[in-house]
Amino acid sequence: ETGVTQTPRHLVMGMTNKKSLKCEQHLGHNAMYWYKQSAKKPLELMFVYSLEERVENNSVPSRFSPECPNSSHLFLHLHTLQPEDSALYLCASSPPGVAGTQYFGPGTRLTVL
Amino acid sequence: KQEVTQIPAALSVPEGENLVLNCSFTDSAIYNLQWFRQDPGKGLTSLLLIQSSQREQTSGRLNASLDKSSGRSTLYIAASQPGDSATYLCAPSGGGGATNKLIFGTGTLLAVQP
Q: What's the rounded Cα separation, in Å, for the pair B34 and B107?
């Protein structure tokens, strides 16, 4: 248990649905991350938030929309996804500075039909 | 752009063997390097964190080394056990700003046979 929780753990959605993934941490960290892990590919960094401000957007399609209302919560809003978006979506958080580790949640397994 | 390669991609060993996992990265301007473990369908667990000024870190049966100038890190697992079976990921960090941006390799899938 790392202190980072993600809900739901599994999600199946159609291409026309709208859903949201939630990530929560109460570790006092001030940076939060979304990663995508597809089969046979390295984890891809999608978004980075520092002090609730988006500091990184790695050319992610607009059908993925992040939201960070406060330093403890991070959302990933999904709409009109494609089957190739099926993957494990991992959230992580880290303390201030660049010298610390990132703490990962268990992930949400997303399947797009 | 940082690129990370892990060799071998998969490894199967009998219980009790000592083994080495290799990681290479193309950009040596890193803040630190981390080794993670991932069990199937699960999140990542941090195993070891080596700062750029350090050469190695140890935790129990695990020892990680870092040669920043040559862009290499190794993870040594002593006396392997079936419970060590997992995917091991190497992730150097870099980038500007106040956040710790990790770039991951594709991992080494380890199976330790009882």
A: 12
Nearest residue of A to residue B88, measured between CA atoms: A42
In total, the C-beta contacts within 8 angstroms joining chain A to chain B are 76
Would the CB atoms of B43 and A109 count as touching at under 8 Å?
Answer: no
For B78-90, write each residue's pLDDT tens digit. Answer: 999 999 999 999 9
Q: How far is CA B88 from CA B41, B47, B55, in A?
A: 13, 9, 20
Which residue on chain B is closest to A40 by alpha carbon? Answer: B106
Burial, B89: exposed, middle or buried (Cβ in 10 Å; 0-12, 13-18, 19+)?
buried
Instruction: Tell me the mean pLDDT in the region A31-55.
Output: 88
Chain segment B16-48, per-residue pLDDT in tens:
999 999 999 998 888 899 999 999 888 899 999
Give, in degrees to the nearest 5, the angle at Cα B4 between B82 and A34: 85
How many CB atoms within 10 Å of residue A50? Answer: 20
The amino acid occupying position A72 is S
- Detail the DSSP E strand segments found in B52-96: 56-59, 62-67, 72-77, 86-94
